[in-house]
Amino acid sequence: MADFPIEVVRGKFPALSLTDKGRRRVYLDNPAGTQVPQAVADAVSRCLLTTNANLGGFFETTVAAQKVGDEAHAAMADFLGAASVEEIIIGANMTTLTYHMSRTLGRTMKPGDEIILTRMDHEGNVSPWLQLAEDLGLVVRFLPFDERSWQVEENALKALLSERTRLVALNYASNLTGSINRVKALTAIARQAGALVYVDAVQFAPHGLIDVQELGCDFLVCSAYKFFGPHMGILWGRRDVIDTLKPYKCRCSSNGLPERFELGTPQIELMAGLTAAVDYFADLGAAAGEGGSRRQRIAKAFEVSIAYENALARQLIEGLSDIAGLTIRGITNPERFGERVPTVSFTVEGIAPETIVRQMNAENNFLWSGHNYAWEIVHQLGIPPEQGVVRIGIAHYNTAAEIGETLESVHRVIAMLRQQRS
């Protein structure tokens, strides 16, 4: 952890120096959205001020705007390890893209076909498929996660697959438990059965290197605002799969890839910010000593940030484990920290999560309570969805001092609430 350039990193994020009435901010709301480097904000502003035009013309600003879009697709191809920029589809957000792709894939399905959804996924990778199934008469089979490993197990998936299975939707990492699924192994099983695989990597993307070609899946979706970028979503689709699909689109819009999947005028200024977010990772990798391609520098950035984040997660989990009546909902074994991202959720016996979070928010510790759209998880665990959990989410710009302050706050707030009840 000592080798990670935390002060240099923090210096790139203006929001980290903000105070409220002299009180520092501790951003531990990162699973819902991270802060952005100055370079991202600058790129968005520069695009709006100097290349603000629609696409398809021959004058200077429209040509420049097209270049911004092209650069964003190339940046995300590097970020995800895609074989081609034509496989990168950029849109409003993960949920919107998933609804759009689910309807497109629905054109290839018929009543009685089956889709498999997990009990571990964010609702953005559940509701689109449930509603598609309702519209088309598809059969939905739910795949639970193992409450000992906190992961989706391969044998459980095998038990649900059939010759009618057309699609398996699963997540890379949970936004509540933090658990990382063995996506490559699960994908191989599903594809051997003839099913397409749609992966939600929103929670994994800020914390680990994604290689879509190695994973073997057919689709993978993530959100830039979870990895220090602007509010937009990115969907990767395997070229040989998406090239056969007929999306819902305007009759006169392009039939090329990826344009035929990108509805309406793109958010060009946000695409500029997206490229800057990817380049932030590349710059971090360069600072850590990698001088190769952008992809190689991104990989190095994750190598150093994972080690740093795991140390913070260990500090947080060990500190929470000292509190009687507190249950961490996820992996707590330090030997398995490589199988989780640094998102830690917990419940406390007899105390509503919102009560804890409201008090901590008042102290400028930014974190969340509730189900956090992990609707299936809270139901499988028997947690009242109207209460949910307390969720603390670490990003690599957080510090050990912030985790220490947060732990002190958690201990103090729980003790105070228990005293008030007695």
UniProtKB/TrEMBL annotation:
<dbReference type="InterPro" id="IPR015421">
    <property type="entry name" value="PyrdxlP-dep_Trfase_major"/>
</dbReference>
<dbReference type="Pfam" id="PF00266">
    <property type="entry name" value="Aminotran_5"/>
</dbReference>
<dbReference type="InterPro" id="IPR015424">
    <property type="entry name" value="PyrdxlP-dep_Trfase"/>
</dbReference>
<protein>
    <submittedName>
        <fullName>Cysteine desulfurase family protein (TIGR01976 family)</fullName>
    </submittedName>
</protein>
<dbReference type="InterPro" id="IPR011340">
    <property type="entry name" value="Cys_dSase-rel"/>
</dbReference>
<feature type="domain" description="Aminotransferase class V">
    <location>
        <begin position="26"/>
        <end position="403"/>
    </location>
</feature>
<dbReference type="InterPro" id="IPR000192">
    <property type="entry name" value="Aminotrans_V_dom"/>
</dbReference>
<keyword id="KW-0663">Pyridoxal phosphate</keyword>
<dbReference type="InterPro" id="IPR015422">
    <property type="entry name" value="PyrdxlP-dep_Trfase_small"/>
</dbReference>
